[in-house]
Amino acid sequence: MIYGSKDNCRGILKPFFYESVILLIKNYCMIKSMMIALALFAAGPVTIHQFKVPSIEGQTIDFSKFKGKKVLIVNTASKCGYTPQYAELEQLHKAYGSKLVIVGFPANNFGGQEPGSNAEINDFCQKNYGVSFVMAEKVSVKGTDIHPLFKWLTSKAENGVMDAEIKWNFTKFLLDEKGNLLAVFPSKVKPMGEEITAYLK
After folding, report:
1. Same-domain status, 112 and 161
2. What is the DSSP-derived secondary structure letter of residue 170?
3. CA dist 164 to 36, 64, 155, 157, Å?
4. Could you say which of 20, 103, 187, 193 has the lowest number of CB atoms within 10 Å?
């Protein structure tokens, strides 16, 4: 019987050892990727229902409570040429409140047209338009300090539907009953316009 030296044995075993290690690493990476994919699938896509924001009165707006209804999100301002749209938003709220939730987000990003505090904005909305739909606290809707909800609304990478640009006050985002982005309407589209109400009939 011929026995090889230890060096010969090591030389023969080395390739098998390295191949086994590489195979184990590949299998581990593949299993890990599958587990991540399954976790993401189980969690489902990120929707508007994942968000919670403070209301203009300091309470919490939990978007998960709006499941089963469409949601219209509007960036509002008190000193804008489109400010009278508050009246139509209230009209829309009263006409379609059983199937639509309107959430206004005051923002001072355009022309400094929303300079007031949350209390001042709330008082303005109540006195001038009798607003009874949901109003969130004042936020930023663009720029480096953009609120996470508006970052989600305007980025396809986050909402999975489309990129959108907020060019002025009273841009409107319509979301479906499952919290997915449906459509975006520019400032000039009136709340009671056919472009919006067609989704509610």
Report:
1. yes
2. T
3. 29, 23, 7, 11
4. 20
Which residues face 175 on adjacent strands?
Answer: 71, 181
Q: List pLDDT tens digits, range 156-191.
A: 999 999 999 999 999 999 999 999 999 999 999 999
The CA distance from 41 to 86, in Å, is 40
DSSP string, 77-128: -SSSTTTTHHHHHHHHHHHHTTTEEEEEEEB--STT---S-HHHHHHHHHHH
Give the residue from 155, 178, 162 showing the smallest Cα distance to 47.
178
Do 16 and 52 have their domain in common? no
Supply φ then ψ for residue 147, to 5 degrees. -65, 140
Instruction: Kindly list the catalytic residues.
Output: 80
Q: Which of 180, 199, 188, 200 is nearest to 63 (CA)?
A: 180
Query: Crossing angle for the helix pair 85-96 and 118-129, nearest 10 degrees?
Result: 70
Which percentage of the chain shows pLDDT scores above 90? 77
C-alpha separations of 87 from 22, 97, 126 in Å: 67, 15, 11
Count of CB atoms situated within 10 Å of the CB of 111: 12
Whether residues 193 and 104 share a domain: the answer is yes
Give the three-class secondary structure for 10. helix
The pTM score is: 0.79
Eight-class DSSP state of 66: G
Both 13 and 61 in one domain: the answer is no
